[in-house]
Amino acid sequence: MTTAVREAPHHRNLTCVTDYRCRLPECVSRYNEWQNNRLRAVAAGTWQPFIDATPIRQHLLKLYAVGYTPHRVSVLTGIDWNTVRLYTQAAPKQGRGMIRQTTPEFQAKILAIPLEPTLPGRVDPTGTRRRIQALSAIGWPLKELGPHIGIKPDNVRRILVRSQRVYGTTAQATIDAYDQLRRSRPRKHGVSEIGIARARRNAKEQGWAPPKYWDQHPGCIDDPDFEPMHKLTRRERIAQDAHWIMTTTGANKTDAAARLGVDKSYIDHAFRDHPEYAVEVAA
């Protein structure tokens, strides 16, 4: 009976080789380089495998106080978020105590994160939601976006369906992830073809706009008052616009048609096909 090998959650540090037996060439090369450096340091008498983790713990607590999360620290350093969390608290359910000693490499990475001025504590979630939806529309499953944003995968879905506000740090992290991933193919990050197809299908059913749509409306992705009309037919857009013009300004169909650059008969047909926007006023 063979033991199944777990899939590594990421390939950013040595754990994918040491804990998950990853054999990707770049990961094996990174591990071999680390081993060679370690052996050279041992031979030179300069190897310091473990040092006191107190400076890391103190720095992390300061980072958390200004809005960082273990997931965000993980994204910035490449250190697994569970390891980051263990520097400040134990995990009794997993049988793991708080980390008391660490390596100089981990300390350097974590202490390099600056204590920048805090972002707004809570902000409107519109832009964060739309960026997540846009990435999903090009094939990114929601569960795959969590590590890139720096939050738990379950929290990605929670932002879409329940959150009234999001942390400023989460909003900024989503912007960073969006800018990076929108031009990167999910399959290059290990996302399966089934996962890509499922994400695209769900986004299509939900009517989520892709990045290309938001490129055509600069500045609107964060505007809660902007109503995206992705995948609407021209006739439905005309019906909506005519409805707005007529109910807001009191214009008739002829004037509304002139403002929209169409014939009055086009508005008649648009209202017929989309009666929820029809306005009964003098022609």
UniProtKB/TrEMBL annotation:
Tree of life domain: Bacteria
Protein name: Uncharacterized protein
Organism, scientific name: Streptomyces sp. R28
